[in-house]
Amino acid sequence: MPEKKKVRLTPVDIKNAKFKTVLIGGLKKSDVEAFLEKVAHDYNEVLKENKDLENMLTQMRVKALEADEIKTDYEKLKDKNLILEGEVEALRKENQELRNKISEQEDLIEALKLENAEKDAIILELKKQLEEKKDNQIPAEIIEIARKTALQIKQKAVEEVEKAFQNFPEPLKVKIKPIIEKVKKELIS
Fold this sequence. Notes:
Layout: H1 11-15, H2 29-135, H3 140-166, H4 170-188
Helix pairs in contact: 2-3, 2-4, 3-4
């Protein structure tokens, strides 16, 4: 059974309180009224203080809820920051791996250039020999064979460059493609 809410006195109730008067042993009416006036005033102050305290409590509860929300947001941001730190570290490692692969491929390109230069030197030597033999009336067939051999050597070098290029990761292909095209052009010319 719900408890009945007690009806509280108000300062006005206290001020307006009336008492029966008795002739013998009664209280002085002005003293009672003055006392009731003071009690009503003090009671009114207590009610105001109570209301102020209730308002402060409500504000504190709101601030506590806001603080909880801020703490929750902070924890979420902290967790997100940890995740992002992990992602940044992974990207750094991937970047370093790509740099290493680029370096390896640049070394391979240099090696292919050297090999191509050596093959060009051989081709020049063969041409020189052919020219000397041409002067000695060597048939045109030998010259054609030497030309075909030189062309095959260059084509093989181009194939090796293309084969190496196929193994590159996609981001590296984009960066190295102009270099590869230049090497292929040098090999074909």
